[in-house]
Amino acid sequence: MSDSLLWWNLLNQQNIQPPQKNLAVLIDTENSSPFKIVEILNEISRLGKASVKRAYGDWTRQIMTSWKQVVVKYSIQPIQQFSYTAGKNSTDSTLIIDAMDILYQNNVDGFCIVSSDSDYTKLAVRLRESGFIVYGFGEKKTPESFSQACDKFIYIENLTLGEFDFKRMQDLLKDTDLVQLLEKAVADASDESGWALLPRVGQIIQNIKPDFDHRSYGFKNLSDLIKNMGIFQIEERRVSDSPTPQVYIRRAELP
């Protein structure tokens, strides 16, 4: 068992929450919507504390009116970048330079890059190489190069769902990529008896596919998705004095 997993188990047994991450939230206003910011900030609050919040764009333009209301309401620092060339995203270089400045200041644990632009792919790679966690937020049209460069990429469409559109078991099992991903994660995380701790399975899934999200399949959490697959056994175990049981899963035996 890895040191990080042992540490997680110890915290869980003692009902201790891991230390909160300080995150720098950098928003490309030219490739994101002001009407989705509240959902994005709510999601970020589950990942850590937004200790830096900056939005990049040409604030002299009339089209930025909605963004101006957002930055005031949510205490986001607007960073001015004039649009020197029509049709060209001018925020890229400023956001990237700021990210590197924050990196060298070493005051945060990670970055949240809000954009659907693949131009931030190298930035995400560079930040991760320096030991910082990188969360990406963008639409499903985001190029795979950027989404896969992040530790975790969250599609904005999944944050604004009303009633979840649950996929039926038959549809889930037809998704061979999903089935293979879950089977591999469970196998990699399992002990000698074949049982795997659910949080560890979730971490392996995220390592393999950073843009994986159970909400894409209509489920509020990973355990519900796995239950509805119908091909895994689930078992809850009480550990020491922990008030909440730990969830273990394994591949069900074939008939």
The level of helicity is 25-40%
- The SS-based structural class is alpha/beta
Number of helices: 10
Number of domains: 2
Strand content: 15-25%
What is the total tally of β strands?
9
Strand order, main sheet: write it out: 3-2-1-4-5-6
What is the fold-level CATH name, i.e. the topology of the largest domain?
Answer: Rossmann fold
- Mean pLDDT across the residues is 87
Low-confidence segments, given as residue ranges, are 1-5
What distance lies between the first and last C-alpha atoms, to the nearest angstrom?
31 Å
Biggest sheet record? 6 strands, parallel
The gross shape turns out to be elongated
Radius of gyration: 20 Å
Q: H/E order of the elements?
A: HEHEHEHEHEHEHHEHHEE
Which short descriptors sum up this protein?
alpha/beta, 3-stranded antiparallel β-sheet, 2 domains, 255 residues, disordered N terminus, 6-stranded parallel β-sheet, Nucleotidyltransferase, domain 5, Rossmann fold
How would you portray this structure in words?
This protein has helices spanning 3-13, 37-47, 65-73, 91-105, 121-129, 144-147, 169-174, 176-189, 198-208, 222-229, and strands at 22-28, 49-57, 77-80, 110-114, 133-138, 152-155, 196-197, 232-237, 246-251. With 255 residues, it is of the alpha/beta class. The protein has two domains: 22-159, 3-Layer(aba) Sandwich (Rossmann fold); 164-251, LOTUS domain-like (Nucleotidyltransferase, domain 5), CATH 3.30.420.610. Helix 6 links the parallel strand 5 and strand 6. Helix 8 (176-189) packs across helix 9. The model is unreliable at 1-5 (pLDDT under 50).
